[in-house]
Specification:
Number of domains: 2
Number of helices: 3
Radius of gyration: 24 Å
CATH class of the largest domain: Mainly Beta
Strand content: 35-45%
Shape: elongated
Helix content: under 10%
Length: 489
């Protein structure tokens, strides 16, 4: 009966329309107390030609010496090897840092510690096909071995653009995210988060679009397209080192963080309030079910671990003034953060971390946070029932591995759950200092059931006490494969 209620709730939001196609590449880089990097980029220059095998020039502002030149080149031809660029000075050592032959040929070249006086970078097509380039000139980059790391290219044919596993820079880096398309010269891409405005170079019906993040920022390569056509998109991220060595930030590095810092105490919860109170990119909140969801200052629960999202690191000293409240007397009410289908398919795992404060320990079954699969084919739910923590899965109740499952009334806890497609779902419970109280596991159902949403609220149409107020705060979500676990806010 409970699972039927869950399915019925899911049907309401799994088919909700989405306004934009999305793509995400998850990219981890950062700085935690190291000297501040000072990478700066000149305005990127675009160039290209529609057909033929003749070389074409990209004209840039003259280098003064010591800069890093980064060239992104895309050609619709896939049958010929990439040809190294040249420059008007002729002393650059051009490196092919990455090449991909997915839906055309994409190449990343760089010249480290470039000499002064370069004003022209010449690109050579490998075949008579549309060819286009974007040239970046950077100061503050490493002057030797500047290339750091790259993701693999991710290819998808969809109205929802593709996503990619995470990569982590080894120090302060400049990050470049690009996507290319063989059928859309004007893809209508816009940037997300701390990424720069999109630069697009187009020839014929082909386009290459790139954005960047400087100075060791942590962020997600997320872009939106106005296209609703079933296009073939390819995406990629790479990083280049700064002259100033740094380290990845300490603490949690989730894909997104709903700190719920929006709205006023007592406001009825809306999708707009939820989305405005979410940092990072990935899932999008739908309108909460009618009922007792409200913004509540009493739901403010502090984080104990740093969290870095969209280039900013937040600490326990960060202002935290509100959370989400729901009344267990309004049974079966939920609010879902829905995941784009392409990201669900690309990532085999998802982890949630959150703060939760119990009300009374009702005899009725209720949940705090859930991760669910499409059409409820699989799920993992953080439950409290009859004064006990219970991990509920499609395959049945989870096994208590360590600790005690006892849950006290009117008490704050930290929880983390992990959904693993075709593997083992996990659930951990902690006190507010981060000390472990209980761990659980259960088997996934099936091997191909993708996750589709993270949910807060009561997924069960059981009995609940009117006025039994439950609070949820600091929902952190990580889609990176294999996915951080546990996430303890």
């Amino acid at each position: 009966m409970r699972r039927l209620a869950l399915f019925c709730i899911l049907v309401l939001f799994l088919c909700a329309p989405r306004g934009y196609a999305q793509s995400m590449m998850l990219l981890g880089t950062g700085n935690s107390g190291s000297p501040v990097s000072n990478q700066q980029l000149a305005t990127p220059v675009t160039c290209g030609h529609a057909s033929g095998t003749l070389a074409y020039n990209c004209t840039i502002t003259a280098t003064v010496g010591g800069e890093l030149l980064v060239v992104k080149q895309y050609e619709s031809d896939v049958n010929n090897a990439a040809i190294t660029p040249t420059d008007n000075i002729g002393t650059c050592t051009w490196n092919l840092d990455y090449g991909s032959s997915n839906t055309g040929r994409f190449s990343t070249f760089s010249c480290v510690n470039a000499p002064a006086g370069i004003t022209t970078v010449t690109l050579q097509p490998g075949a008579s096909s549309p060819s286009m380039g974007i040239v970046y000139t950077m100061t503050g980059a490493a002057t030797a071995s500047a290339f750091d790391t790259n993701s693999a290219a991710y290819v998808v044919t969809s109205t929802n653009l593709g996503s990619n596993p995470a990569i982590a820079g080894s120090q302060n880096v400049a990050s470049f995210g690009c996507t290319w398309n063989t059928v859309r010269a004007s893809p209508g891409l816009t940037n997300y988060g701390v990424w720069s405005a999109v630069t697009t170079s187009a020839q014929g019906s082909n386009s290459l679009s790139c954005s960047y993040i400087l100075n060791g920022k942590w962020g997600q390569y997320v872009y939106h397209s106005l296209s609703t056509n079933n296009d073939a998109w390819t995406s990629f991220v790479d990083t280049y080192k700064s002259a100033v060595v740094g380290t990845v930030p300490s603490g949690n590095l989730p894909t997104q963080w709903s700190n719920f810092e929006n709205g006023n105490d007592g406001d009825v919860l809306t999708a707009a309030i939820l989305n405005a109170g979410t940092l990072g990119g990935g899932c999008t909140w739908s309108a909460p079910a009618a009922g007792g969801f409200k913004v509540a200052t009493a739901g403010s629960l502090p984080i104990i671990n740093n969290v870095t999202v969209n280039g900013t690191t937040y600490t326990s000293a960060t202002a935290n003034t509100r959370g989400i409240q729901y009344d267990m007397g309004d049974n079966g009410i939920t609010s879902a953060c829905n995941l784009p289908a392409d990201l669900s398919s690309a990532s085999a795992t998802v982890t949630n971390g959150f703060d939760i404060k119990t009300g009374t320990t009702d005899a009725g079954v209720w949940s705090g946070v859930s991760i669910v699969g499409a059409a409820a084919a699989d799920y993992v739910i953080f439950n409290i029932t009859n004064g006990l923590f219970v991990q509920e899965c499609k395959s049945g109740s989870g096994t208590l591995l360590t600790g005690s499952s006892t849950a006290a009334a009117n008490t704050a806890y930290k929880g983390s759950i992990k959904y693993v497609r075709g593997g083992t779902h996990l659930m951990n419970v902690y006190d507010t200092s981060g000390a472990s109280l209980a761990t659980f596991s259960c088997a996934a159902t099936g091997t191909t059931n993708i996750h589709s949403a993270s949910i807060i609220g009561n997924n069960h149409a059981g009995t609940g006490t009117v006025g039994n107020l439950v609070y949820v705060d600091n929902l952190q979500i990580d889609y990176k494969t294999p996915g951080a676990f546990p996430l303890i806010p």
